[in-house]
Design a protein that fits this description.
heterodimer, A: 558 residues, alpha+beta, Ubiquitin-like (UB roll), 7-stranded mixed sheet, 25% helix, B: 167 residues, Alpha-Beta Plaits, 4-stranded mixed sheet, elongated, binds iron/sulfur cluster
Chain lengths: 558, 167
């Protein structure tokens, strides 16, 4: 430990830390562009200059280690003058691009220009022009004029993503960020440079020009792309998801997300092939009918089978609440022992940073709440064989496209009754006799359990036809708050879908079993009572960062 | 008149001449008579129409130059609009400006003609016109899209010059 004084206050700090780290640990912000807690120190932007007593010149706080008795000033006249000078240099050649720059509204340079700059320019000469709209790879676009040469992107690619393809060429004001000839920024984590870039030099090709940041509302949630469960924010405008960005959680994903998670896990929520309203197959055609008719028809169909003729397939894509109610439904309401789920594992994609081979967000959770055959019941492959030989004639599938697997596809046609909960049209709904539209992870409350055993919260970011953004407390932007039915933007697309657990409660009721759940929190309350590894947990305790359950089968590693 | 403990109290009495009533009536009529011989302000609308000066804030329009809108879809007008009348959806263009509005809608039922959008626009792309004749037969009709907003720069020269001079 070392004792240092910052702006007149004494602090006990780690003797190995730098001034910027020590200040940060004590809630003192020292402005910086190139320094980042997760990257090596580069010390090139000069924005973090501070005054240290006994030192003739100002020092950069990011590369100066603390020493016992050190007296640091971060707001003295000399420091303020230095900050103004650094900002002036940075802005000399910076383009007046804010109106067309996606970073505007969340730009460090913009913010610092207000906080630490003089507010006007003395520069009258022509600005240096550099390449604009340069694709660096499949997902990242570069605008060299906006780059302030902090090298964060270069360091991230080298140190974290382990793909050293970025570099600077030229010198002075002519420095250009570029990829080495013949290479592209195409690693699985490439899009993290977008948030790392303190300016709008690196932007998302997918999100490009879709919305201004102040028009969107952000909802804290968890990625459903694999068993890691990276913490993220869902950004919506007009009830549509526009982008996903990582949310820091040191126990799970540090500050990162993979490109797959960012790009491939939300488009189906907005998609036109979403199912809206339940449907029942009549003469080979799926016909939309109301919820009540569907549920009562389904109940009477289910009554026509003997207990051991029915089987259930749970889902590692669905929440703990959905799976818990599902296993009760199959075992208690339908009285079947045949219950299992299908794993979705792709070994090749796993790496040591984030990406897991298990491509589902909740396989551990689904197992924990009881998605497994009862004693004497059949597992997934057993169920498949039993359908094939005709001893199982009805199958109830929770949120999984099992027909995408050719082995399942061929046997499903033999079923007398196939019931599916699904958010989108897929191979399984094409074969189903009853299709129940399920809310996606972005439309409901619930929990999922990642590969570490960490229970994390999902929250609705998108309203369905039965929820209202304001009344149900979803995050709302200014546009959401003040829309009226006379505005085109006040009439967003809403799908008629319900959380699976709630659909199951209504089917159970039609079959004469009352399950007393009104909210996902009620269901989780019961899970916390009856599932030992979740004992004592609640939505409030899980909070925004999750809670590690005792089921933890894999040691914590990020 | 004043009020005291809920009772009305007369604080000023009418004068003798006011109480007589008729002299006051003639005073009023003489004012009317004198106005009849002064120049008239009335416009014989719709045959005769008011031509506003260039400082007038009529309905906002989008300036079109060389066949395209000046607007870069930055959304600042939409953000500053106190009535939330403007909706902008940006998209990418091959032109040097990179972005343009694929959709630009002003809900004229919301617009309060404050001119904030004109003031905030970095491109002088949205300006207040001289048009004040706005009639709609439905809410839907009051939402003006690009087709009704785009106006060639030549037609709004006066306002553009006025803005430049008053800066
Ligand atoms: S990087 Fe920041 S300051 Fe530069 S144009 Fe973009 S928003 Fe403006
Ligand atoms: S592109 Fe961004 S992150 Fe990379 S050096 Fe330039 S400013 Fe820094
Ligand atoms: S690593 Fe997994 S959880 Fe994290 S962003 Fe990628 S797909 Fe999502
Ligand atoms: S402020 Fe100007 S440039 Fe920006 S969106 Fe509005 S009209 Fe277009």
């Amino acid at each position: 430990m070392a004792t240092i004084t910052i702006n007149g206050t004494e602090f006990q700090v780690d003797a190995k830390s730098t001034i910027i780290e020590a200040a940060r640990a004590n809630g003192i912000h020292i402005p910086h562009f190139c320094w980042h807690p997760k990257l090596s120190v580069s010390g090139n932007c000069r924005m973090c200059l501070v005054e240290v007593e006994q030192m003739p010149k100002l020092l950069i706080a990011c590369a100066t280690q603390v020493a016992d008795g050190m007296v640091v000033k971060t707001k003295s006249e000399r420091v303020i003058q230095a900050q103004k000078a650094v900002m002036e240099f940075l802005l000399i050649n910076h383009p007046l691009d804010c109106p067309i720059c996606d970073e505007a509204g969340e730009c460090k340079l913009q913010e610092y220009a207000y906080q630490y700059s003089v507010g006007y320019s003395r520069f009258e000469e022509d600005k240096v022009h550099k390449p604009k709209r340069v694709p660096l790879g499949p997902n990242v676009m570069l605008d060299v004029e906006r780059c302030i040469m902090c090298s964060r992107c270069i360091r991230f690619s080298e140190e974290i993503a382990k793909q050293p393809v970025l570099t600077f060429t030229q010198r002075g004001t002519h420095v250009v960020l570029t990829t080495f000839p013949g290479s592209e920024l195409d690693n699985p984590y490439s899009m993290n440079v977008i948030e790392l870039c303190p300016v709008g030099a690196l932007t998302s090709r997918d999100f490009r020009f879709k919305a201004r940041v102040w028009e969107m509302a952000a909802t804290e949630s968890v990625c459903n792309g694999c068993a890691r469960g990276c913490n993220m924010n869902i950004w919506t405008r007009n009830n549509e998801i526009l982008r996903l960005t990582p949310r820091q959680n040191e126990e799970v994903n540090s500050s990162w997300m993979c490109d797959y998670g960012r790009l491939e896990t939300f488009k189906h929520v907005n998609a036109s092939e979403r199912l809206s309203g339940p449907s029942v197959r009549v003469d080979r055609e799926l016909r939309s009918i109301g919820w009540e008719e569907t549920v009562s028809e389904l109940a009477s169909e289910l009554r026509g089978f003997r207990k051991n003729e029915i089987a259930g397939i749970g889902s590692a894509y669905a929440t703990n609440e959905d799976n818990f109610v599902f296993q009760r439904f199959i075992k208690e309401v339908l009285g079947s022992k045949h219950l299992d789920l299908l794993p979705h594992v792709i070994e090749q994609v796993e790496d040591d940073l984030l990406i897991k081979a298990d491509r589902t967000p909740n396989s551990l959770g689904a197992r924990n709440v009881g998605i497994e055959p009862s004693s004497g019941g059949l597992s997934a492959s057993g169920i498949r064989n039993a359908i094939n030989d005709g001893s199982i004639r009805a199958l109830y599938v929770l949120e999984d496209d099992i027909a995408a697997d050719p082995e399942w596809h061929s046997v499903l046609q033999k079923l007398r009754l196939l019931v599916v909960h699904s958010a989108v049209q897929n191979a399984t709904t094409a074969l189903a006799h009853v299709v129940l539209p399920a809310s996606t992870y972005a439309e409901k409350h619930g929990t999922i359990t990642n590969f570490q055993g960490r229970v994390q919260r999902l929250q609705p970011a998108v309203a369905t036809s039965e929820t209202d953004r304001r009344m149900d407390g979803l995050a709302a932007s200014r546009w959401d708050k003040f829309s009226s039915k006379n505005d085109r933007w006040g009439r967003p697309v809403k799908f008629d879908a319900r959380p699976s657990w709630r659909i199951l409660v209504s089917v159970a009721a039609a079959l004469g079993t009352r399950m007393k759940y009104n909210t996902a929190e009620d269901v989780f309350g019961e899970i916390a009572n009856v599932v030992p590894v979740y004992r004592g947990m609640s939505f409030a305790r899980i909070g925004s960062k999750g809670v590690l359950s005792k089921s933890s089968p894999v040691p914590v590693k990020t | 008149m004043g009020r005291d403990n809920g009772k009305m109290i007369r604080t000023k009495d009418l004068t003798f001449w006011q109480k007589l009533y008729l002299p006051e009536v003639f005073k009023g009529l003489s004012l009317t008579l004198s106005q009849m011989f002064k120049p008239k302000f009335t416009y014989m609308y719709p045959e005769e129409r008011f031509q506003p000066p260039s400082s007038f804030r009529g309905r906002p329009i989008l300036v079109e130059e060389n066949g395209v809108e000046r607007c870069v879809a930055c959304g600042l007008c939409s953000r500053v609009c106190p009535a939330l009348a403007i909706e902008v959806q940006a998209s990418e263009t091959e032109l040097e400006k990179e972005r343009y509005p694929v959709r630009f809608e002003i809900n004229m039922v919301r617009c309060i003609f404050c001119g904030f959008c004109e003031e905030v626009c970095p491109e002088e792309a949205i300006i207040m016109s001289k048009e004040y004749e706005l009639v709609f037969s439905s809410q839907e009709e009051a939402i003006f899209g690009k087709e009704r907003l785009l106006t060639p720069a030549e037609q709004v020269r006066e306002r553009l010059e006025f803005l430049r001079n008053s800066r």
